[in-house]
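Closing statement on the calcium ion sub-project.
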Amino acid sequence: MIIKINLILPLFVIVLMLMIIFVTSTGFFAAETGFKRGDANNDGFVSISDATTIQRKLADFSTDINLKAADVDGNGLDITDATNIQRYLAEFNDPYHIGEYVIDNTEPTRDEYELPFIPY
Ligand SMILES: [Ca+2]
Ligand SMILES: [Ca+2]
C-alpha cells in the first residue's frame, strides 16, 4: 500500500508537467482569431457576394463588412479589392492568396510617436 502511494505522487507530477507542456507549446487556450482573405461578409466563403459587399460599402450603403478580409491587397479598401475577388472567382491569376485563412494575432501596438505617459 505504501508503494502505491509513493507511485501516485510522481505520476501525478509527470502528468501535470506534460499537460503544462502541451498547453504552453500548442497555444491550446490561446485566443486565436483570423479571417479568410476576401470573405468581406464573414459567411465563411469567398463568393460574388463579397465583391458586392465591398461595392455597397464604397457606395456608402449600410452593410456589415470585415474590413481586414475585404482589403485583399492590403492597401486600404477600394474598388480594386472587389475586382481582385472577381478575378479570383474567374480563376485568373491571384497574387493576393484570396481564400486563404489569415491568423490575426497582432497585438495593438503603441504609436511610436505617442508621447510617454508621465505621472505628475
Ligand atoms: Ca463571403
Ligand atoms: Ca485594397
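The two ends are 65 Å apart (CA to CA). With this model delivered, the sub-project is considered complete and its resources will be redirected to Aim 3.
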